[in-house]
UniProtKB/TrEMBL annotation:
A GO CC annotation given for this chain: endomembrane system
Region annotation (Disordered) ranges: 431-462
Coiled-coil parts of chain: none
The entry's keywords: Glycosyltransferase, Magnesium, Manganese, Membrane, Metal-binding, Signal, Transferase, Transmembrane, Transmembrane helix
EC class: transferase
Highest taxon listed in the record's lineage: Eukaryota
Localization in the cell: Endomembrane system
Source organism of this protein record: Chrysotila carterae (Marine alga)
Span of domain Oligosaccharyl transferase STT3 N-terminal: 20-410
Name of protein: dolichyl-diphosphooligosaccharide--protein glycotransferase
Reaction(s) this enzyme catalyzes, per UniProt: a di-trans,poly-cis-dolichyl diphosphooligosaccharide + L-asparaginyl-[protein] = N(4)-(oligosaccharide-(1->4)-N-acetyl-beta-D-glucosaminyl-(1->4)-N-acetyl-beta-D-glucosaminyl)-L-asparaginyl-[protein] + a di-trans,poly-cis-dolichyl diphosphate + H(+)
Amino acid sequence: MGIFLTQARVGVVLISLHWAVHIRLFAVRNYGPVIHEFDPWFNYRATEYMVANGWQKFQAWYDEGVWYPLGRHVGSTTYPGLQLTAYALHSLFALVKPVDLNTICVYIPAGFGAVASALTGLLAYEATGNANSATAALFIMAIIPAHLMRSVAGGYDNESIAVSAIVGTFYLWVRSLRSEKSWPYAVLCGLCYVYLVAAWGGYVFALNMIGIHAAGLVLSGRFSRKLWKAYSIWFIIGTSGAVFGPARYLVGWQPFQSLEQLGPTVVFFGLLIWQATAYIARQRKMNTMGLMKLRAQVIVASVLLAAVVAFAVLPAGFFGPLSARVRGLFVKHTKTGNPLVDSVAEHQATPSRVYWAYFHVVCFLGPPGCLAMLYKLQDAKIFVILYALVAYYFSGKMIRLVLLLAPAGAVTAGHMIGLVVDFTLQAYEASGGKKDSKGSKASAKASTKSGTKKPSAKADSKAEASVVPSELKELYEEQVGFRRVTALILCTIVGFCMWRLTTHAFAIAPSLSEPQIMLRGKGRDGRPVIIDDFREAYWWLRDNTPEDARVMAWWDYGYQINGVANRTSIADGNTWNHEHIALLGKCLVSNENVSHAITKHLADYVLIWTTRFAGMYSDDIAKSPHMARIAGSVYPDIKPAEFYVSREGTPSKMMQESVLWRLHHWKLDPKAEKPLHFEEAYTTRNRMVRIYKVLDVDEESKRWRKEHGPGYPPALQQVLAASKPFEQIHGF
């Protein structure tokens, strides 16, 4: 029986890892190896540059083909972990059999989906000590849509590898706390954390999660020398890697300056004080009261010293405020104080229906599994409980953070399933409740076969009590028939839940895998067709415009203009310069004369999304209120309240006079006026994208930029002088 159970678990693990890759390949099967969406195109372009020029030149790369006329220093504004990963894999494959870089980048998310699933299983095993729970957690993580949505093939984005890095960091952290001799795992935890920092800005969550856990252990009276040693090793290695590692230009000294990262630093010094005072107390042979007094004195002195230091550096602006994105986790998403942050859909609050779509039956299995963690508490279980609670809170504040809840949901739901499997195995292995030596051996044997770590060799009543609450002890021990019926019912429920989760995941996976740069539809004859207007527009730019052509479009499309069309863009998804995006917004929402007076110094072509004429309403008209709000936050002459389309579809006067409305509707709406300063150059087959040539381009400004380098030409100084620096609105 024991061999059979082991083989069954191995089989489930192998199937889960296979499915973890298979379920993420729908896009490849439907469209081929295509890079998806917007951000992945920047990541791919940056990877191409790194592979072609090497790591050192990548760090020094100042890209003048983006954010025209300013450019962007890529090395100091990019988390390079994804590019380094693809670079390393490309180099390794080159030693055996060369593989196209595009293919590697397309398949990385699917491969790391399997890696994240395996690491989630390890985290579950460390927390529960139960192989059945770990196997179930791995299976759930492999297919759960909350994880799937950011790890499909072609979705070459930071999160696709960051989930593996986060779960790996968490697993190695709790593993380092297993015993006094487990501290080497803290070294690996620190290194894994450095990789996470290089991969994604979400490292702040992992940093604070470990800090919260360590502080929670101290407050709950679970401080130990192993905790101090593991945390110190992890913090020193991790923070050093963050400050001096691959992402050093982006991270800088934020671990000691940023308010959202200072907490773990305080915990580090707090643990140091706790350990030092414990050592002094042992040397002086103090009692508990003496130790408490000593700690109180040291803490008061430390707080006073910290206050003096903070008072000295605060006037110099050493400490920075909470970022807009972090502030958005504590206030409503429409009130972060930054209209640029508020304009991003994935920064909005999470509707309740999203949880059912992305977690499905885990919504029912996770909470009881989390509660079950409270039984026989240990450090790893406390971590999972805190992780689940914190991740659940933040997932409700921002849609993109639903991803962080996926591993916690898989572990807690897996624990619940593991308990049911244990209960079933013990129920059908029980001898009927007789407490003789034979029965005791049978119970211990059942516990071993169920996959529980460190199985007990004591009486079966103790082994069984680990599964059933004490008030049902007598019924549990004596009523074998009741136990078996109950086990059968529970197994049926769990089996049904897993079947429903599997069918739901495979049903939703194709839609989550849609690349967005290409779409599927049906022709007039009902046959499926590929709608490729977006790439069609970019290919037209690539093939029909000069290599130095500058293309103005809303910042969403900048990465694709660079990556697919290989042309210069005005702004993109990096959104590092609010004032520049405001200038872009002013060009699009102003009337044609005002717009052209600015645009002729910046662009040769203007690209507009007009997808509403193909039945899709997420086009530039839908985004235009955000354009007006962002422009109005810098340029007082832009009045966002006057820029709208009524519920009846009637545009306001300002909207109708805007160049965006005119370029969007010309020839597609009989009422639209013909543009005077822009000439239609190309409209895609399904009228989803339109490209206009800017007339009377100012060649002097273009020449000035080539001769003087990054910066606005003198002809725009009067426009820029009318702007005001953007000031973050603090909503606390």
